[in-house]
């Protein structure tokens, strides 16, 4: 019997297999499952922290933490994924808690931004994220921008 393990690595510490599995999962969910053809590999992965849940090399949950590009930008949590067979088991909640804790404690972020799908705004709101835009369409999927501010 294998156990699920949480992993956290920056880009330079990822193995080729880990990077391949991350990109494969992101394409499976965001491009194939959601029927949304767009360039998933966006050139930002090298500067990100990657957090995932795996068992024997198979990824079940993933997100990346993105540093700001400019002094006026925010740290962000993106590409939040839980595979279909593991949804509803609390992994997304634990993944978000890990990402928020990392940003607050390790990168000393004062704000966290996310660009979430509209149907998940209640989920993200449960962590303290507030909506900062109206719902808008991106790639034919309703999205909303949300912000978490630490006191």
Please tell me about this protein's structure.
This protein has 151 residues and is an alpha+beta fold. The chain has a single domain, classed as Gcn5-related N-acetyltransferase (GNAT) (Aminopeptidase), CATH 3.40.630.30. The protein has 3 helices and 8 strands; from the N terminus they run E-H-E-E-E-H-E-H-E-E-E. The chain has helices at 16-33, 91-105, 121-125; strands at residues 5-10, 49-55, 58-66, 75-82, 111-117, 130-131, 136-138, 141-149. Strands 1, 2, 3, 4, 5, 6, 7 and 8 form an 8-stranded mixed sheet that branches. Strand 4, helix 2 (91-105) and strand 5 form a beta-alpha-beta unit.
Short description:
The chain is an alpha+beta fold and 151 residues long.
- CA gyration radius, whole angstroms: 15 Å
Number of structural domains: 1
Count of distinct strands: 8
Mean pLDDT: 93
Indicate the proportion of strand residues: 25-35%
What class, by secondary structure content? alpha+beta
The name of the CATH topology is Aminopeptidase
CATH superfamily: Gcn5-related N-acetyltransferase (GNAT)
| Helical residue percent band | 25-40%
Shape verdict: globular
List the helices and strands and how they pair.
Elements: E1 5-10, H1 16-33, E2 49-55, E3 58-66, E4 75-82, H2 91-105, E5 111-117, H3 121-125, E6 130-131, E7 136-138, E8 141-149
Parallel strand pairs: 4-5
Antiparallel strand pairs: 1-2, 2-3, 3-4, 5-8, 6-8, 7-8
């Amino acid at each position: 019997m294998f156990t699920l393990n949480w992993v956290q690595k920056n880009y330079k510490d990822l193995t080729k297999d880990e990077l391949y599995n991350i990109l494969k999962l992101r394409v499976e969910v965001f491009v194939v499952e959601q029927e949304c053809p767009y360039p998933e590999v966006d050139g930002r992965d090298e500067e990100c922290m990657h957090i995932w849940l795996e068992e024997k090399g198979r990824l079940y949950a993933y997100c990346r933490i993105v540093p700001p590009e400019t002094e006026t930008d925010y740290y962000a949590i993106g590409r939040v994924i839980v595979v279909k067979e593991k949804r509803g088991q609390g992994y997304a909640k634990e993944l978000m808690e890990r990402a928020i804790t990392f940003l607050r404690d390790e990168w000393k972020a004062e704000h966290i931004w996310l660009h979430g799908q509209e149907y998940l705004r209640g989920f993200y709101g449960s962590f303290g994220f507030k909506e900062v835009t109206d719902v808008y369409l991106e790639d034919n999927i309703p999205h909303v921008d949300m912000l978490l501010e630490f006191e």
